[in-house]
Amino acid sequence: MHSTRLAELGITLPDVAAPVAAYVPALQVGNQVWTSGQLPFVDGVLPATGKVGAEISPEDAATYARQAVLNALAAVDALVGIDAVTRVLKIVGFVASAEGFTGQPAVVNGASHLVGEIFGDAGAHVRSAVGVAELPLSSPVEVELVVEIAH
């Protein structure tokens, strides 16, 4: 299923990122799993800091959104197993934006496109792409994920 597709794509889910405050990475509610906002940590380190449209290019930020959604999927996998996912319901992407930067949708596409590659039609989702002044640890992006799981 999805674990097979990940292998076909050459993707290994990372370890679940340790929370940076008082929360859990993911929570199951009925047949849904909601993740906390995930930063684009790679091996416990942010690959870059700063605002998109200033220190960070939109293209690099899309790569970081892809990493952040991988971290969200890792949280889902640790809680219920990635193969339990029947549908991706929603992605919320936050983009630390320089003044005047309005390309948030293209940045969050980094997360959306990866979800589509992994889940196919079941990856079609609703989403929000929100520009914000600051994110935790000066991260350029943060991504939340809501998925439906099999009962």
From TrEMBL:
The record places domain Endoribonuclease L-PSP/chorismate mutase-like at 4-148
Q: Which Pfam families match?
A: YjgF_endoribonc
Q: InterPro entries, per this entry?
A: Endoribo_LPSP/chorism_mut-like, RutC-like_sf
Coiled-coil annotated spans? none
What protein does this entry describe?
Answer: Endoribonuclease L-PSP
- What organism does the record attribute this protein to? Corynebacterium durum F0235
